[in-house]
Amino acid sequence: MVSLRFPFLFSPPTNLKALNNVSSSAAVVIAAAAGVVVVGIQTHQREDPFLQKAFNLFLSHCPPTNSNLPMWGSLSLADNSVTEEAAVVESKTGASFPTVLGVSRRLLGIGLRKKSVLGLKNIDVYAFGVYADEANIKNMLNEKYDKLSVSELKGNKQFYEDVINNDISMTVRLQIVYGRLSIGSVRSAFEESIGSRLQKFGGADNKELLQRFTSMFKDEYKIPRGSVIELSREPKHVLRATIDGKEIGSIQSKLLCRSVLDLYIGEDPFDKRAKEDVEANLASLAR
């Protein structure tokens, strides 16, 4: 990685005299030259101490900075490229979600998970984004649904069942916005919410599966505000969980994958508006 220093140029005030304009222009030239020298120094200073001394002498004769000179900035280049990932911001919490995860998992909708406290107050626990693999959707659903309009697919129960039951790679990305949330609270919440879905779709005899899932969220993990939990359905219905990019476990279970996704896009979702957005975007991708 090479670190370059160069001036960010701002338009000067209109009432500056010509002399000041000339001085500013000269400063730009000096700054640009300094940037070149910095690169040379950082690359070769171990091999050529004379170059380091020459650079120090150059700096000692540079004029002091003032408000009329360009401001200095810093840019780090890795592999000769700089990229800026597009993101969508949840308006209430400010949580930011990349529009693409990995290669082709597209953001379909964002929402909020709220929790009622003593029936008196709703707390924003985390913001979430739902992603799905664009190629999987087209390959598995396009032939069946390409002749239907988006409005016809929204609320279509068969379409929902196909999304849930097919081996489509999907991710629910949770970003913690409540600063006092503990991993134990997350574990308890999943026991309740996912436990009810496991019972709904698979009957009462799924306590072992639920325990295997919740036990991945060990007390050693800390989840301060801004932490990211991802629950992903990978190929062959493997549910993979990560916290801040670190994998904490995976379980192969079609029932568990369905139960997790149902919390966000099922009949009784955490955020109905988010579900509607996900449905509409899934329908668009499937056609």
UniProtKB/TrEMBL annotation:
<dbReference type="InterPro" id="IPR016088">
    <property type="entry name" value="Chalcone_isomerase_3-sand"/>
</dbReference>
<dbReference type="InterPro" id="IPR016089">
    <property type="entry name" value="Chalcone_isomerase_bundle_sf"/>
</dbReference>
<dbReference type="GO" id="GO:0016872">
    <property type="term" value="F:intramolecular lyase activity"/>
</dbReference>
<comment type="similarity">
    <text>Belongs to the chalcone isomerase family.</text>
</comment>
<dbReference type="GO" id="GO:0009570">
    <property type="term" value="C:chloroplast stroma"/>
</dbReference>
<dbReference type="Pfam" id="PF16035">
    <property type="entry name" value="Chalcone_2"/>
</dbReference>
<dbReference type="InterPro" id="IPR044228">
    <property type="entry name" value="FAP1"/>
</dbReference>
<dbReference type="InterPro" id="IPR036298">
    <property type="entry name" value="Chalcone_isomerase_sf"/>
</dbReference>
<dbReference type="InterPro" id="IPR016087">
    <property type="entry name" value="Chalcone_isomerase"/>
</dbReference>
<feature type="domain" description="Chalcone isomerase">
    <location>
        <begin position="106"/>
        <end position="278"/>
    </location>
</feature>
<dbReference type="GO" id="GO:0006631">
    <property type="term" value="P:fatty acid metabolic process"/>
</dbReference>
<protein>
    <recommendedName>
        <fullName>Chalcone isomerase domain-containing protein</fullName>
    </recommendedName>
</protein>
<dbReference type="GO" id="GO:0005504">
    <property type="term" value="F:fatty acid binding"/>
</dbReference>
